[in-house]
Amino acid sequence: MAASLGVRAIRDAREVSVVVSESTPAFAKRKTLAVKSLSTVTRTRLLDELAVVTYDESALGITDVARVTGEQVSGISVAFLVVGSTTGITELRAAASAFPPGVEAIAIVCDPDTIPGMRRVADLTILTVGYLEDLQKSLARAVTS
Predict the structure, then answer these.
(1) β-strand 104-110 against 78-84: which pairing, if any?
(2) What is the Cα–Cα distance from 141 to 65, expressed in whole angstroms?
(3) What confidence score (pLDDT) does residue 143 get?
(4) What torsion, rounded to 10 degrees, do the Cα atoms 117, 62, 57, 54 define?
(5) What whole-number percentage of the chain has pLDDT above 70?
(6) Which residues contact 34 (CB under 8 A, 6 or more apart)?
(7) How many domains does the chain have?
(8) Residue-wise burial string across 82-103, b where 16 or more C-beta atoms lie within 10 A, e elsewhere
(9) From CA 38, how far away is CA 90, in angstroms rounded?
(10) Rounded distance between C-alpha atoms, residue 10 and residue 118, angstroms
(11) Contact in structure between 109 and 127 (CB atoms under 8 Å)
(12) 120: β partners
């Protein structure tokens, strides 16, 4: 989902930043509060970098990723929070509120076992998608509501 959003933004000549959590080294006594910016110079470069992103137990949660990104990346107007099915609404709302005022947050919850949909929780739009083809329909629905 993140790749599809990033590639589309690059194709549309929009300024885009894609970040992922840095992993905390095994020897560290505290988690590393850092994110890694992926290359968005070209669509191919972004896809190559996303292809090697893997799950890591020591990675930051979405709230910390949002907070660090909000502090380090300037000029954010829209933030897409792409998460899996185990991330709850409370955590999504906390992540959305970690961005500076004026940043619109849209959570994209990826869950192939659910019916695609959209809901608003306070100022947060939550799109639930099962498969990539659901993303375009859900985004179109979000824009018109």
Answers:
(1) parallel
(2) 27
(3) 63
(4) 70
(5) 96
(6) 21, 22, 60, 68
(7) 1
(8) bbeeebeeebbbbbbbbbeeeb
(9) 27
(10) 25
(11) yes
(12) 125
Domain that holds residue 59: 2-144
Residue pLDDT, tens place only, 84-128: 999 999 999 999 999 999 999 999 999 999 889 899 988 899 999
Token pair recorded at residue 81 = 């929070």
More confident residue, 49 or 143: 49
Report whether 1 contacts 108 (CB < 8 A): yes
Contact, 145 vs 117, CB < 8 A? no
For residue range 30-46, list pLDDT tens digits in order: 888 889 999 999 999 99
Q: Report yes or no: 22 and 34 within 8 Å, Cβ to Cβ.
A: yes
| pTM, two decimal places | 0.88
Residue 48 has pLDDT above 90, yes or no: yes
Structure-block tokens of residue 31: 């988690």
Q: Are 3 and 46 in contact (CB under 8 A)?
A: yes
Tell me the two tokens of residue 40: 């968005």
Helix axes 2-11, 132-144, angle to 10 degrees: 60
Number of Cβ atoms within 10 Å of the Cβ of 9: 19
